[in-house]
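Sample 3 of the quickstart, ligand NAP:
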Amino acid sequence: MLVQGARVLVAGGSSGVGLGTAKACARQGCKHVVLVARGSERLDKARAQVAALGVRCDVLATDLTQAGAIEALEEFTDKIMGGVDLLVCNVANGEFRDFNATSDDDLQAAWTCTALVAYRLAKTFVPPMRERGRGHVAIVNSPVRATPYFAVGYKVSRTALFGVAEALRSNLEGSGVGLTYAEPPRISDSGYFDTNAGVLDQLPPMFRSPRFAFLWQTSDEAGRMVARAIANNRYWATTFLVGLLVLLAPFLPMPLLRFMLGDPVRKIATPASAGGSS
Ligand SMILES: NC(=O)c1ccc[n+]([C@@H]2O[C@H](COP(=O)([O-])OP(=O)(O)OC[C@H]3O[C@@H](n4cnc5c(N)ncnc54)[C@H](OP(=O)(O)O)[C@@H]3O)[C@@H](O)[C@H]2O)c1
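Result:
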């Protein structure tokens, strides 16, 4: 899609890939950006960064998992910029816990915050795009969804998010509304590790150890990657090596994957010390 002149809504836009994408869209000359997240402090800092690029930016502090929040967001975007041409879904959280330390509520919360929110955002903002016969949706996910990994809430939520993207891809065919699905590598300056305590220590070595930093991206680099895919109407947005891992993972034997991803399961606290079992 032509990002120049577009009205952009970034759900989960106060940090990480969401903010990076908002800034990349501003650099491509979009008309107006709305950023949504829960925390006002980070939102205000993010607004200043986008505005510094010469694009009008407004923010809404709300928890998108709460009833009525997406309806209120629709009202806000209608009022403040008259609609949405590009929807970016980057809303996510969730700690990394093994089966023994994951309660039903943990799993439900991770799923709600990612897949259910993306599904509801698409249901709300795609129909007007479809009516106009133009627009674009971008969904940001994690490549960890495609690899064997201990964190069951994280895996289930990201696999479900992939399902939302794939279903939407088929649903949007021929509508004039484009779709981009992004799986970035580790984001070196993401807000995720501040919001979700302890997650950084439980990442596989290739996402945690500075030895592998040559594989990582900054939020700005990931945002540019996503914005390039949007501008080129491309579905898949990832790096070459992450894409290769994702494609090959189902065919690779576990010992090789353990060698590549490490074995974070050994580092996990026991259910009693984690205090989150059900
Ligand atoms: N970080 C990495 O290294 C990395 C690598 C590859 C893929 N990914 C995946 O990419 C996605 C985005 O990651 P990121 O690094 O951009 O994370 P991030 O910096 O934490 O961004 C997530 C955004 O969502 C917002 N958010 C969280 N819960 C919300 C809620 N209930 N309602 C409204 N907003 C909410 C956060 O702000 P508030 O907390 O203030 O609400 C923040 O703006 C995730 O699925 C992640 O797993 C991350």
